[in-house]
Amino acid sequence: MSIDKRKITGDIMADLTRRPVASLWIGTRLHYLNQLCLKSHVVAGHPTTLYCTDEVVNVPEGVVCRPASEIYNIDMGLVGKTSPSFLSNVFRYKMIEKTGAIWIDCDAFCHKPFPEDQGYIFGKHSYRGALNCGVIGLPQDSEVLALLLDYYESLPDYPPWWGKRQRKKMEALSDRDISHAARIYATERTAFGPQALTHFAKVAGIFDKASSQDVLYPVPFQLNDVFFDPHGHVEGHFTQNTLSVHLYTSGTRRWWRKRTPEPGSYAARMCLQVGIDPAEALEE
Fold it and tell me: Which of 35, 194, 214, 225 is 20 to 30 A from 178, comparing alpha carbons?
């Protein structure tokens, strides 16, 4: 698949007058799906900032890069013992506290602009009704934001929602040289992400403000290969309320990492719509 960039004109770029959005990238190069998702917010009119730990060589037009250190100093040693997504959980809430921008994961495609007057933007994403933090907006003075930041900055011995099974699992870890935070992550990868947001949203009494799954996560994670199927009807999952489409790149690497999307697939169609050439940003 190749895109004639001469056909992608500036008229698809809206005036950047909507609410600002931001994300984090740890590394030096974006994949085409990340380019696609970031640029989709620019096209929708959202000023889009990408906070970076390094110089990123292929940021799409319209996305503004800023040093991640403006928000939070990323501990790259801890990233090496966990994953980039681990530190992004801390980063997103510190970013919201400092800037008020809406957090977007780099694999969240903007289907429609975010509402201007909605203080809480977060949603359910699974069959069990748990929350996800792939797209999240919170008032800077909200109780839930304060609770989340306190949790990260003053980690308890165990996350307060854990039962005996998770505690025993952590105690059984053989690697005693990793940090307390890394031990929690090794026990439950989502303990700093969806689990924390779900718990503290309930404590703060705002769980009911969560949008239904169709708004931010219309395609279930279990069906994530549909984005690359030219015969898959992705839009069948959407409703008139859908704002964002999470592409779940962590679960679909085998479909995208070193190959362009099949013509007619959702990923290919959105690249054509937004003006991203997948062939120029495959995993090396």
Answer: 194
